[in-house]
Amino acid sequence: MAQAAALIRRGELVAFPTETVYGLGANALDPDAVARIYAAKGRPAWNPVIVHVADVAAAKTLTRSWPERASRLAEACWPGPLTLVLPKSDAIPDIVSAGGDTVAIRIPSHPAALSLLRSADVPIAAPSANRFTQISPTTAQHVAMGLGDRVSMILDGGPCEIGIESTVVDVTGNEAVILRPGQLSADTLSHLLGERVLMRSHALDHTLEHAAPQRSPGNATRHYAPRADVWLTSPDDLPEVQRAINADSTARVGVLAIDGGIDATGAHRTLHLPATPGGYARGLYAALHTLDNEGCTLIVIQLPPAGASWDGVRDRILRATR
Ligand code: AMP
Ligand code: MG
């Protein structure tokens, strides 16, 4: 840990566990260090990174103002999987905010992340520790496979508890707006604030709910995506899934099903995830990594039900197909 903290202070990259996914960390106050994050990930400069801090006092030094909503949410959810977007102070280099005048901040709850933040004694900018558009890592092995030769150190804290990225909430305006859904749902946040919480309209595309299986266009706008093509499906579509598996003997089909859900025969591998949002999120990226690493050319994903508690999971699955 002492070595990891020294590397951060020297401007180098350290991958570390958080409760959501593994982060690719650099000193958030050092623009050259943050530039190394973008270079290692191949991340475009327009995509800002989240800054991790050990306590609220540190968060406040990075912001120009601290709205009442920030106090309430921080008190209820930190340390935890919630990121607040706030007006940034001059302490935050432009490269961290992608040139914008806001900064995204969170206090992670993973003991190794907190220990690193306290030892390094600087805020740590950290996006997910994967190459741009690839699947986010939930184990140190995932990080090593994707970025092993591009980081100075990987701290191994075992598999991530939550498994999908934090809920990002913009509290700079007159109403709180979820920019990215996560395990903390709109319902939960709305309950905590005692008011409605908006969902940025394109954060989720509910129109796909009843869509027939669709082949992904495989274009460059995909995020959190495996290399394979992805189909979204429902138990009603099982005959069509079965036909697709039978029809093409050259395809290596992986199926990601929900416990008690679709069961096709003849797939290269079928993995089942729990029928609860928490359990599903915890296993999602590891399952996608497994199917991808086994060379699946097509991954069929049974889409979980709609509803606020599934928003985070559905968002990541939908992004895997765009
Ligand atoms: P990642 O670090 O890979 O989990 O992605 C970070 C995400 O946080 C970005 O893609 C944005 O959606 C969001 N984000 C980070 N900073 C800001 C900001 N200043 N304003 C709005 N969203 C932000
Ligand atoms: Mg990411």
What's this model, at a glance?
This protein is an alpha/beta fold and 322 residues long.
Structural write-up:
With 322 residues, the chain is α/β, with parallel strands linked by helices. It has two domains: 2-208, Alpha-Beta Complex (DHBP synthase), CATH 3.90.870; 229-320, 3-Layer(aba) Sandwich (Rossmann fold), CATH 3.40.50.11030. The chain has helices at 2-9, 31-41, 56-61, 68-77, 94-97, 111-120, 140-147, 186-193, 238-247, 277-293, 311-319; strands at 14-16, 23-27, 50-52, 82-87, 102-106, 124-125, 153-154, 167-170, 177-180, 198-199, 229-233, 253-258, 269-273, 298-302. The strands form two sheets. Strands 7-1-2-6-3-5-4-8-9-10 form a ten-stranded mixed beta sheet, sandwiched between helices. A hairpin with a 6-residue loop joins strand 1 (14-16) and strand 2. Magnesium ion (MG) binds at residues 127-128, 136.
Parts with pLDDT < 50 across at least 5 consecutive residues: 205-221
Secondary-structure class:
alpha/beta
Bound molecules: adenosine monophosphate, magnesium ion
Strand arrangement, largest sheet?
7-1-2-6-3-5-4-8-9-10
* Shape-level CATH architecture of the largest domain: Alpha-Beta Complex
Name the helix and strand elements from N-terminus to C-terminus, one letter apiece.
HEEHEHHEHEHEHEEEHEEHEEHEH
Count of distinct structural domains = 2
CATH topology of the largest domain: DHBP synthase
CATH class of the largest domain: Alpha Beta
Main sheet makeup: 10 strands, mixed
Number of strands: 14
Identify the CATH homologous superfamily of the largest domain: DHBP synthase
Mean pLDDT: 91
